[in-house]
Amino acid sequence: MGKSIINAGCGCQTEHGLWFVHYVLRILFYYDFSQKKITKAKLIPESNEKDICPYSAIVECNGKIFIFPSNADTIWVYDIKLDKFEKIDYKLPNNGVFRGAYKYGAYIYAVPYTYDRVIKVDLNNYNVDKINSFAMKDNEKVFANSSSLYKDSLVVCAVPASGYYVAFDMKKEKWERITISNTETNYTFIACDYDSIYAFDINSKQIKKINYQGDVLSESIVLKYPSVAMITLPNGGVALTFTQTGEVQLFDSSLNCVQEIALNVIKDSLNSQYLHVHWIKGETDVWGITKGNELLHIDKENNVSLHEICIGEDLWKNLGETIFLEEKKIHKENSILNLEIFINSVTKEGKNI
Question: Phi then psi for 44, rounded to 5 degrees?
Fold first, then answer.
């Protein structure tokens, strides 16, 4: 079995494994912790998706996987036991719809990226309610570049080049806009845990630990590159990856760099500003699905390990046949996304079938 490009645009941890959707192809994967390999690969039904990041958020609840779009127009529910997809009856634009989704009580709230409202899905009957977005002025165009859960019910979002960040209170179903006092600051990424908010300032190339009001409590050294993706660690602090290189660094809660990790990044993919690591946060562990076919694991003691992401031969063959027969359009070759490598490694046109 040859190499593929396994990556993720969104994912979540369940008790026994990880569910994630490929960054480009509409494939839902399941990685089983006990078997240490991918044991499911399901083709998501077509929903007017675009070629990059069709889905941006996954939430697992009661044996079902809720899949929220970024560049597609449908919310899907995958029933694990029945092994089938169900569509939620609510049509969406297929252009940068959501940035994240979070369960609170009997509902899932999907937070907008460029969409004009929050979507509230009732888990009992799949009814959908709409809540206004944080664009509080008429015709104001704003973008939530990242979102993260803070203190159980607050979803904090970075809004680049705006002079503020925003928070959606799921309990009150209201938005709050927090003004950044330093006009030279531009937060492009935010990662939270229960007690802390970490924001990346692209102008100073620093991570800043802030309180909810925006006061800076501590800050990192100046980083090497101006573009990062972050996630908070189980024992405090953050892990980040540089999108230019795929390097990973770990910072403690005072934002001292305590570890650097070299990943096996495919050389051609270094041209990409996306996909080097997709972070998934569980109850006590953090996972990173890397572009080099490795699974990065950080446990509750901040111990780091790397595992190859494998797919069984039968599943690999079935996946290839499914893509070849059901995927009406083969995505155009894109050296940045390495799609040809992936497609050829699982289809009859490749060497594995």
Answer: -70, 135
Residue 250 C-alpha from the chain's centroid:
19
| 74 phi and psi angles, rounded to 5 deg | -135, 140
**pLDDT tens column, 115-167:** 778 899 999 999 999 887 765 555 566 677 889 999 999 999 998 888 899 99
Q: What's the DSSP call for residue 144?
A: -
* Other beta carbons less than 10 A from residue 231's beta carbon: 22
In the three-class reduction of DSSP (H, G, I as helix; E, B as strand; rest coil), residue 257 is classed as strand
Q: Is the pTM of the predicted complex or chain greater than 0.85?
A: yes
Per the document, the length of the chain is: 353
End-to-end CA distance of the chain: 9
- 238 in Cβ contact with 198 (< 8 Å): yes
Asked if 140 and 132 count as a contact pair (C-beta separation under 8 A), the reply is no
> In what helix (H) or strand (E) does residue 344 lie, and over which residues does it extend?
helix 339-346
User: Is 31 strand, coil or helix?
Assistant: strand
Cβ atoms of 159 and 151 closer than 8 Å: no
CA dist list (Å): 266 to 29, 229, 288, 293 = 21, 19, 16, 9
Amino acid residing at 74: T
Q: Which two tokens stand for residue 85?
A: 């997809």
What six digits make up the tokens of 30?
């399941």
Nearest to 110 by CA among 62, 151, 80, 77: 77
